[in-house]
Structure formats: structure tokens, C-alpha cells
Specification:
2 copies of one chain form a homodimer.
Chain A: H1 3-26, H2 33-45, H3 50-57, H4 61-73, E1 77-81, E2 89-93, H5 95-116, H6 121-142, H7 144-147
Antiparallel strand pairs in A: 1-2
Helix pairs in contact in A: 3-4
Chain A binds a DNA duplex (23 and 23 nucleotides) through residues 32-35, 49-51, 59-67, 70, 82, 85-89.
DNA sequence: TATTGTTATACTCTATAACTATA
DNA sequence: TATAGTTATAGAGTATAACAATA
């Protein structure tokens, strides 16, 4: 196996493990990977319509309805009337939602530090640069109309 | 944001993109990520019982029943009587299943070459080494009983 | 006429529990 | 008594299509 394929496989393996680790940390509770992703985007965007969330998450509006239903039931977000468009709702984080994200962000920082501990700054810089190139190329490959 | 968190985020981003790319390449056909994973394990293990597949995939035996049902319907695998245990079945790849995996492996090799093209051997070696360390640490974190 | 969100329907992946046939 | 696989049931994530309210 050539080095590039080996790196590719390691990348996938690391990704799967991180996903599993994330999913496991939610297990049993009302939060799941998809719902947490919505919380994350919601904090990034600020109070948003479900259409905006659907676009940000890359899923269908119908799917967002279900995710918001669950997150509203667990008091992580709440729906409010849109001030100027009576068709739309504005989804916002509750205090509990904000607390949840803050905690997750701290855990992410701690995990990153644990995983990268002992790796030299030079090596991290190399990994960062290569991963950036890979993601850029992937995005180009996946949107052929924009890449040609 | 510190460098380690940045690398962590890039790792997740690359992983998500690769997953999306994989899922998209199956879109519309009978193959999905989970079914393809089963094919992959089946080739690695050789003809296997569903129990063995469940263990290899880390899912419930009931889940394997559904995956094998679908893969049998699309002629990627077939069930046969176990020679010595009449409770069990032996799942094997059909010719079509073998062809499918061979094609996917070639595509993986091509994608890896495309993504890593132009990256120096030294840099790839660094990335490989760091990713290996990260996956090892993740595994230790996720199995505390084995790690202490 | 277009957009927002919902109801209706369906498929996939996943799980646990109960059951049948066999070991 | 234990194991292999299935049926039964359930929940989560995802999708499209049809629909009501509003723009």
C-alpha cells in the first residue's frame, strides 16, 4: 500500500473513531450527533429560520422540523414568531442550549489537547497544511460545476 | 484557536467530506455506506457467519440480517448452509460483490492519489505518524478498562 | 407565483426482546 | 443451557411530495 493510500485510510479511521466517541458521549440522553450539529450551527448563525438551518446543515427543511421538535422538547432551543414574516419561525438557543454548547466546546478543546499532546509545533503545522489542502481538493471534486 | 484545536477541526471536516463523498457515490443504487462496510469486512474475513460479521462491524446480529437481506437481493452476497452447524449460515461474496469491491478499491486508490498529489513524501510521513498517534490515543480513551 | 413550515409517507440504520431451531 | 438467526417493535436520521398560510 502506498503512503498516500495509507494516510487516506488513517484519516478515515480517525474520523470514524472521533464520530464514535462523540456519539457515545451523547448516548442515553436527548442529544444526538445530528441535533448537536444543529445547536452548533445555531450558535454560529444566531437566531435563525428553519430554512436557514436546513441550508446550513445541508438537509431538507422537513428534517429540521424533526430536529427542532426534539431540541425544543428537551429545552435546548425554542421557537418564536418571526418579527416580520408570519410564515416563518425564529429558532434560538435557550440558556440550557448555550450551556450545553459551552460545555461541549470545552470538552473539544480538552480532547484536542490530549490527542495532540507531545506533537511538535512543526509537525502540527505540517498536518494542518496537508489537511487543509485535502479538504480544499475534496470540495472542488464534489462541486464539479464550481471547479471547472 | 490554538493549533491543536485547529488540526482537530480540520480532521473532522475532512472526515465529514470524505463520508459525504462516499455516500454520494452510492446515491440511488442499492449500495449504502453500511452495506459497503459489510462487503469490505466480508472480503477481509472470507465466508462468515452473521455472528462473525456482527462482531466485525460492531453492530447487532439483527442489524446484520437486514444488511445481508439487502445485499442478497442486489446479488452482492449469498447465504449458504453452514457445513457443520445447521443453525448458522455462511455469507459469501458473489462475483458481483467481488467486482464491486475491486472497483471501489481502485477508486479509493485514485482518490487518495488525487488528494495527496503534490504533497512531499516527508510531509506525508509526518501526517501518517501524527494520525497514527491520534487514533491510538482515541482507542485508549474509548476503552478505559484496557488502558488503565 | 414563490416561500415557510408542516403533515403524510417511505427507506435506512440502529437497538432490544421474544422466539425457533439447533448445538 | 447456550447459540444462530429471525420476527416484532421502536427510535433516529434522512428524503420527496402535497398542503396551508403567508409573502
Amino acid at each position: 500500500m502506498t503512503r498516500d493510500v495509507q494516510v487516506f485510510d488513517r484519516l478515515i479511521e480517525a474520523a470514524v473513531l472521533i464520530q464514535d466517541d462523540l456519539a457515545r458521549s451523547f448516548a442515553g440522553g436527548p442529544l444526538t450527533v445530528a441535533r448537536t450539529h444543529l445547536l452548533w450551527e445555531l450558535r454560529r448563525l444566531g437566531p435563525s429560520t428553519q430554512q436557514a438551518l436546513a441550508a446550513a446543515l445541508g438537509v431538507s427543511p422537513r428534517n429540521v422540523t424533526g430536529l427542532v421538535d426534539a431540541l425544543e422538547a428537551s429545552d435546548h432551543v425554542h421557537r418564536a414568531a418571526h418579527p416580520s414574516d408570519r410564515r416563518a419561525v425564529l429558532v434560538s438557543l435557550t440558556r440550557r442550549g448555550v450551556r450545553t454548547i459551552t460545555t461541549m466546546e470545552r470538552e473539544r478543546t480538552e480532547l484536542a489537547a490530549q490527542l495532540a499532546g507531545g506533537v511538535s509545533e512543526e509537525d502540527l503545522e505540517v498536518v494542518d497544511r496537508v489537511l487543509e489542502m485535502i479538504t480544499t481538493r475534496l470540495r472542488t471534486l464534489m462541486t464539479p460545476e464550481a471547479g471547472s
